[in-house]
Fold this protein.
Amino acid sequence: MSDRASISHFGRMNRRTLMMGASAGLAVAAMPKRLWAQGAPTLVTSIRSLSNPYHAVWKTGAEAYAASVGLEHVTLVSEGNSEKGIADIKAMLAKTGGNMVLNSDPNDTPDARPIVEACKSAGASVVTQWNKPADLHPRDFNPNYVSHIEFDGIASGKQIAEVLFKTMGGSGGIIALGGLISTTAAIERKKGLDEALAANPNIKLLDFQVANWKSTEAFDLTSNLLTRFGDDIKGVWAANDDMGTGALEALRAEGLAGKVPIVGIDGIKTAVDAVRTGEFACTITSDPFWQGGMGLSIGYNAHMKKFDPATQPPEHREFYGKVVSITKDNVEEYYKNNIDSKPTMDWNDLWGRVTGAIRA
Amino acid sequence: MKSILNMEPKTAMRSFWSRAGKARRWRAFAPLGVLIVLCILIAIANPNFIEPRNLIRVANSAAVPLTLAMGMTFIILLGSIDLSVEGAMSVAAMVLVLLATNDSNANNYGWLAVVAAIAASTVMGLASGFLQTTLRIPSFMATLGVWFIGLGFSVYMLGGSAVRLMDENIRALALSRFLGFPLAVWIALAAFAVAIVIQYHTRIGRHIMAIGGGEDVAELSGINLRRVRIIAFGLAGFFFGVAGVLAAAQLGQSNAVIADGRLFAAVTAVVVGGTALTGGEGGVLNTLVGVLIVTVLANGMILLGISPYIQQTVQGLMIIAAVALSLDRFNLKIVK
């Protein structure tokens, strides 16, 4: 699962992709209308940046889906700039005359509304992920606004906590490293941890500290916490993998790597490697490859009238996707399918990863 | 006392403060006093603080900030500012991991990678110095530019992801120990020793102080401003490079944001130690104390179990208190 905070961070900082994004925008503007044949819609992916691994994999998934149905695919990059993100989408709508399918990770929560409204008036089909205002609902924009997908931060925080407790044998003290205090992902994941703690009275939370999503801060914090609690620390819960790897290096400096299990969220490669060596107990990922491909697939199937969004149940319109948990039991398989090669996916299994409707 | 009064006109308030000669001497040691009081208070509240294992951890956490702050001290003594810390550090860390054994390419240059990393960041420093003196751009803007160039370059080279450092010898900088302390601590101390020698025993060190004290006077006494400035920024780049290598060795990986927040930490440490942002006052000894204050405070707040939600507030108060104590504020002609 991605943390939105660190993603927007990457987008802001990278200048190279700003140029790439700008030239992509120019390229879109320069394309003649007739390039798009009537009938077959254009698949459009709108994401924040290509400089972070999360969105890079997202794009790979989108391209894999486009290749599987033999359609043209365009990637728009907002570079963390909401105006640019929306303007690029409107330009694409104009060029395609509305005959397009959009899978968007809106840069910011309010952006979803103008994007959806523009798609509605042009007749395009749109799927949004992660960010939308609470009062914006797909059911109010039938049939154009097909679905909205999120991943449940509370469930993720709870799920990794449970794996950690199990690895520790059900009792002992843990330390927890949280993300940037004000972000939704940080708040939700901590809530999940609290729920898991409430259900496991033999686990004691020694201290909760904030490392702002960063491995460097987690490194210093963890070594200080080692002083305060010493051998009482039997496990480390980190709200993302980057902080988890910082904690891991602090443990390694004390000769404790592999002896004190760590859990994190995101499924970054370093963490997956650490699961392989037994230094991480678990990491989970929202599977950006699936997000990139399935968002388009849901939108395309609705666009081609293979199903009518208006008649779909609420949990197909606004839903939490299933996260993929990577533990020592499945890490070799995950590695083989996702890191050594491109994953293969059944793109027609539209609702296979629905875990429930989004909490109001 | 009378002669001082005659030399320059002062307001009543200012002469009141400067007449207090004792207070002035005391001020020079104010940061040290703050550090000692801080240590005593934390040790009383939690005796674990003075346990050797913790002192080693404090030293280890101080290693990277100390090395960085050594470079920053010279720039601030010069009356300039170097914002390129994060850019230079991330370039050094990026060059290191991409040339040493790593999980992204087949390079394996060992210690040559370390040399290349430090050289890269030194060149960035020299370039900032060159830009300022040749194009007459203020250090604030020139180094801001170099910061973004460096950061953009490392994001590009690393492709936005984290690359792991797998050279065991370089990892040993953080993982193996000599006399109980990780090698990184010894390297930081060596950097400190080098900085001491440069400041007190070389011509460039004296020239930096002279320029910081008064650029026009320094120029009239025949100091080559341009040369000193370029060398000082190159020197800073060298220290940032060493810090980048240490940070990558500690974390066992490098990503473009490895240096996030380091600029603020370095400037804070230098200023809290009593070096004036206006230049010409303070030095590397002050900076050592400043780094220790910041590190001990961070360690102490964890030991005392202070809520993460108010730790930043405490840090802010600490900075204001230390700076207020360490300089003769009422004697300043301009506050901006």
Q: What stands out?
A: Chain A has two domains: 4-151+287-321, 153-285.
